[in-house]
Amino acid sequence: MTGSAAVFAPGFFSSGPVHTALALGGVVAIVCGTVGVFTVIRGQAFAGEALSDIGAAGGSASFLAGVAPIWGFLAASLGAAAAMEMIGVQRARGRDLATGIVLGGSLGLAALFLYLDSTLQTGTGTTVTVLFGSLFTLNSSLIPAVVTLSLIAAGLVCVLQRPLMLSSLNPDLAAVRGIPVRWLGVAYLAALAVAVALAALTIGAILGTALVVGPAATALRLTRRPGLAMLAAAGLGLLAVCLGVVLAYDSYLWPPRGHGWPVSFFVVTLVFLFYLFFGSSGPKRIRQREQGSR
Amino acid sequence: MSPTRPEPVTAAAPTPTPVLSVRDLDIRLGGRQVLSDVSFEIGAGQFTGLIGANGAGKTTLMRVILGLQSPTRGTVRLSGTGQDSPAPKRSVGYVPQKFLLDPDIPLRARDLVALGLDGHRIGLPLPSRSRRERVDQMLSAVGAEGFADKRVGRLSGGEQQRVLIAHALVSQPRLLLLDEPLANLDIGSVREIVALISGLARQQQVAVLISAHEVNPLLAVMDQVVYIAAGRAASGPTDQVIRSEVLSRLYGQHVDVLHVHGRVLVVAGSGDSEPPGEDITVTHTHGTP
Predict the structure, then answer these.
(1) How confident is the model at residue B5 (pLDDT cuts 50, 70, 90)?
(2) Nearest CA in chain A to B127
(3) Cβ atoms of A34 and A155 closer than 8 Å
(4) According to CATH, what is the number of the domain A12-238?
């Protein structure tokens, strides 16, 4: 009993904000893991980061407009996904360039909106909230919207997993089977935009991609089956968020006393440590495989 | 998903209706005329080599046959799935060029073969006994049982080719297109893969079109050849196409065809009038080991 008391600081299980943080963070982590597996396979980590950073412009604008930030994140990420699709996602190099340029412009907008947020309003926490998230301040009234969006994004990727896998391996291979490769790419980018907007809401626009890419990259090392990879990524993300919430709650007792550490810090650090721990066996295994094929 | 073995055709006999018939094809790519006047037919169980140097238009021709690109003139007709079926997905198996999989992709060899069966389907992939049996059967047909549960991206080049061939054939197509499947393989694997493809073609009565920049590895198994050079094609039985007169006409300059120890060497005759940008001096010798 003393052990669990040391891990879970007093009041952990009865705290409303903790419940909300666990519920929202958990659902979002599951979606991000599921969607993220294909982000890694398709090599779209940079696109994900761009959608997330562009979401920052939307999130900061929503404070000015007096709308819940989730809608700002969502509108900006989805708009950016559409713009990236129109600019052309066919060629990898052109895509990177277009993404980088749109990304730069959007971060400029975010800088303006965040400045206006902090000067026009007395609340000073807006910048931190938009960029780095604040899981404990989320309102439980968000749960229905977050769960609905999560079901849409994760459901889309689960249902499309076979065509997505085939088109990620080789677009021609998919096209020959009658798969509309381009529309599939659009659908996936939309799912990614939703996942990234949800991640921005929980751990911030700057850190959001960590929850999409990190657990998925780790999961790819752990399993060789597509379905299991999605499950493992969702599980790792969930674990990182739950542990992060516990540690952030505990950190109120850490120095400086009475000022908890940000939960996003713990989540992202755990995601990173998972990757280091499980990913470190990667090069060794590849070496073994090369020796085996000789 | 009924097996496509419609009529009992004896192995080498030409079928009355060809599986693939290509007629008077002109293909342009980015404003450049790549190929003109290409015509040939492939019957069930027939093994056809598509031979040409790098950049001659082999991949482009395959993409046109697959319907991924449209020709400026001419027709590509695929028969076999039943006369008037609307054929939502074409019954063509395809192994694309330079296809190497990322080592970290979470996909076992058997998963890739299964995608050949239902990769176009929407929904969760629920386990099915018949699907599993069909995949197992195909894996053993290509000799991939030994690495069926390994990550496909971590297999050797020859092993990946086997799995890709299984992926292409598992839906029992009538036509199989392989784009340079022998490139980047060691000599032993080349021999194995050629034997495997020609064996499967005859067994499953699949019409095969296989592209290569090198004719020799295919000589023993080819029923016919489509030889492309200088934007044109010559097609027919191997010994009637790989001849000095035919290839000279194709290249537009004198070309000698030499037979050395059962191999063919295509050599430009006179060194004075080589066309610019195309090296045909010794196009088809096998890299000596």
Answers:
(1) very low
(2) A227
(3) no
(4) 1.10.3470.10
Chain B residue numbers touching A160 (CB-CB < 8 A) = 122
Nearest to A42 by CA among A198, A155, A160: A160
Whether the complex's predicted ipTM is more than 0.90 is answered with no
Instruction: Tell me which chain A residues have a C-beta less than 8 angstroms from the C-beta of B68.
Output: 172, 175-176
Give the list of residues 6+ apart from residue B133 with CB closer than 8 angstroms, or none.
none
Please give the Cα distance from B167 to B159 (Å, whole number): 12
Asked if pLDDT for residue A51 goes beyond 80, the answer is yes
- Region B31-44: mean pLDDT is 91
A270 or A63, higher pLDDT: A270
DSSP B55: T
The model's pTM is: 0.85
Question: Does B131 reach chain A within 8 Å, measured CB to CB?
Answer: no
Q: Rounded CA gap, B129 and A35, in Å? A: 28
CB contact under 8 A, B154 and A159: no
CA distances (Å), origin A210, targets A23, A26, A214, A274: 19, 15, 5, 12
Q: Which residues have C-beta within 8 Å of that of residue A273, sequence separation ≥ 6?
A: none
Cβ-based contacts of A169 with chain B (< 8 Å): 101, 105, 107, 112
CB A143 within 8 A of CB A24: yes
The upper half-sphere exposure of residue B99, i.e. CA atoms within 13 Å in the direction of its Cβ, equals 27
Domains and their CATH numbers in chain B:
20-239 (3.40.50.300)
Q: What is the 3-state secondary structure (H, E, C) of A225-277?
A: CHHHHHHHHHHHHHHHHHHHHHHHHHHHHCCCCCCCCCHHHHHHHHHHHHHHH
- What is the model's pLDDT at position A291? 43
